[in-house]
């Protein structure tokens, strides 16, 4: 039995043992024997005890727990040596081969030969070469046992044949033919051999002697038997006639036997018709006996005589000779006693039993009287009636026994006759089929004879066609010969190519493009594989085009990853931040099921996929569950013809077509090393070259979509023509190979060859033209490198248009990223942006020196410069050591040139003109860094602004409405707040204007808000609401749950998820990648603050006084926010915690409106001003109690 747990072993022990008590406690003892041996094979395969054992993650087997080992006697048995094997198998073969061989020396020689062959096989075929090369002494034992299947005679002529045949257990049937005295006898014996092989479905060896080959008739019969499987004339026609006659006689005899059987059966039924009702009635009465009545009889110590006599007769019928009261009680205690009595067959009553029961009934007639029996016990009366009925039935059976014997003999003869009739019918049917086949063959031969005659007449025409055919096939021969040479070269390299491709697929899935390029380059050099690519080795251009049509990005990294993903034997773990690969797999596999890792029924769906061979794609994986490890490792086990796998504590059938793909958007997903080893990691993270290729594809689709369509059409056309040419070549070869008649005379074939030749030439020209056009299109699509000095995408674009597009793209990218950064980080980003997009602005070593990554290997003694501070001598020395040209151009020794520069506050703007013309803009920054680091910030800012032609490094003022227009329902909006910033009121106003305040939900994150947050998100996604989660940084643990909810939901069009957070280094990266990020802080500078305030004020017409008051409030708000940057220096009252937020500004505007309205009311009362209708409506709608002055500043 197969078991892998302790419970299975205990169950096995409970089946063969009983539990008894002893002095040492309860023990298990064998049931039917003194000792029981429990053999545990492969003890290291089951899982160890979870309490005391451990398992290394790098191995697939389990370690044996020491507790188990300590309770056993250990014995290590290795393979016997060659000398021991000789002794063992010599002892095995001695009783088998010594009598026929007549010598123990020969037996020893044979055993030695077998052992030598076994050892030679083991040494030449090792498990290290192939996993299934495992040979054990068990193979020698099987060989020895195979010899025992045959009876070996003293005939020394065929010993080797007998030894060889015993391996396959093939009977040898040559005796019949060798001893046949005449041709007729040989034919009969040959027929017997064939019938034996067919009827017994076994292999037969036909051994032919040399002298028998000399007989031409016998040799002809053997040739026919080998070629067609039959011997003509073996079954003569008269044999068929005899079979027909025999079959008719058998049918007549069968009809007579049926009539006799019916007659005998009728007589038997007449004899039994009176007794059978009595017997059925008695059986029914026995069946109605209640168990209580039997228990009552069994409980009697001294039963009445009537009960004893009745039970004695019953026991005698049942074959129980012990008629004591204990035997009767034991018989009645059986649970199936009534069933045994009811189902009792009267044919079991022997003559002796019948005499004993008959004598008992006659001598104890009163006991079997129904009344007396019923008076003794309710159960005794039915038993007495049953005894009487069976006694009568047995008497009649004894009388009719001769009739039954005759009936049985007739039935047996009838069965034999029917079988013989069936056998003869099959034989006649076979004869008829052979006759029909011979007729068809005769007709075919006649047609062939006629055709030969016609072919002779066409022979001259065929000779003329031969010359033309040779000329036309000459070109095909040359082309096929070139293909053969090319294929032979490929065959020479196929093993190395397969090795490199397997290495590429197995080990390079998670590596970067640079690593892959370097590894493949080394492989090509080491294995002499020039221009080899694993992608083209695994996938044709048609397949790659098909991948692109199903949504795969067109860059080379995506195509390489797809080759790895589709050819790996391990489960792919796809890292794809964009989420496009899961959609591609779902489109590429039409019957695949796309599941979310957050689904509640995920494991159920995977189980169905395993059972029915589905392709399962699991998207948004955040962690790999250990339940899936058996699937990754393919830990299959066999249960009969089925393969099963352990999954989720269940054994389920494993379908070979099952595939599993895991997809995650998290680039930093943490997978345990024991699980990572059995996964094939495929990293689709966008690289620089991949992004370049994807952007190029998008640009071509926008600017010139017909170019991409034409390129795809040409690729499809070229591949289609190649396939068509290959089909034509295959068709041509098949026609040549399958031509049964003379090739030169087959006009249809010749016409087909001519047509194929013409089509092949046309297709070859088309392929050459397609390849040429496709190369030209690829040259048009290729972007020159930046070092060419021009930026262009298409050949017909002007440089000015490209410069404009580059400028727009730079600004869009710069402002998009700057919007997500705090103002303190924007300058650092701007410098990195310039370095990445405009590398020509930096000469070698300049950026490294500026950032401090350059090693100070050259020790240069500082030179004293009078106008430079002494603390900056070391920085100037570094400049001199690493950038000597720049140092010479600066001319630090000329103090007169640098006099004004050294005294200026804004020295970055007063660089001497003679020096400024010799240095680049970034070298000015290096100059300021070396001699005036106090002005480095301003210098860097000037450099960035001039290089990028920007008015400011800060993005243009924006409001939340702009962010809303840019967002989507699939993208959360993350507002990263600076200290004191609060967008809640602006967000509420925007929600009220856009979707209504009733569709806006806000939740302040904190302890106990988990369920409210999840419920709010679910409701908002369904009903199209806005939900804002404030202070998410306080509950970072809920973010993975939010991601799962968003991934599982299908959000409404109007749904938006707003989140606010302060700066937090532990914020999950996946949510940051998915979100639209915007920093929310006071705009840098009073001007930007004023512009932002103006953008939030409506455009209604105001009086001069109101406009002036608005400006004063906006200016004061900007001034206070700007001074907050320099707390506590800019506020003397440090105890006042001022936070000038948007709500404070709104409160001041409300106060301003109140004062304006009160002034208007007072003027109206005095009669100075007469209010119009609109003014009165404003006064009526004004609710003074809603104006909340929540400003904590006491300056007013």
UniProtKB/TrEMBL annotation:
Q: Name one GO cellular component term.
A: microtubule
Please tell me where this protein is predominantly located: cytoplasm
Q: Where is the Dynein 2 heavy chain 1 cytoplasmic ATPase lid domain?
A: 92-178
Q: Which GO terms describe its molecular function?
A: ATP binding; dynein intermediate chain binding; dynein light intermediate chain binding; minus-end-directed microtubule motor activity
Limits of the Dynein heavy chain coiled coil stalk domain: 239-527
The name this protein carries in UniProt is Dynein heavy chain
Q: Which residues form the Dynein heavy chain region D6 P-loop domain?
A: 969-1079
What the record says about family reads: Belongs to the dynein heavy chain family.
Q: Which UniProt keywords apply?
A: ATP-binding, Coiled coil, Cytoplasm, Cytoskeleton, Dynein, Microtubule, Motor protein, Nucleotide-binding
Cellular localisation: Cytoplasm, Cytoskeleton
Q: Start and end of every Dynein heavy chain ATP-binding dynein motor region domain?
A: 546-763
Residues folding into a coiled coil are: 247-274, 400-459
Which PANTHER family has this protein been placed in?
DYNEIN CYTOPLASMIC 2 HEAVY CHAIN 1, DYNEIN HEAVY CHAIN
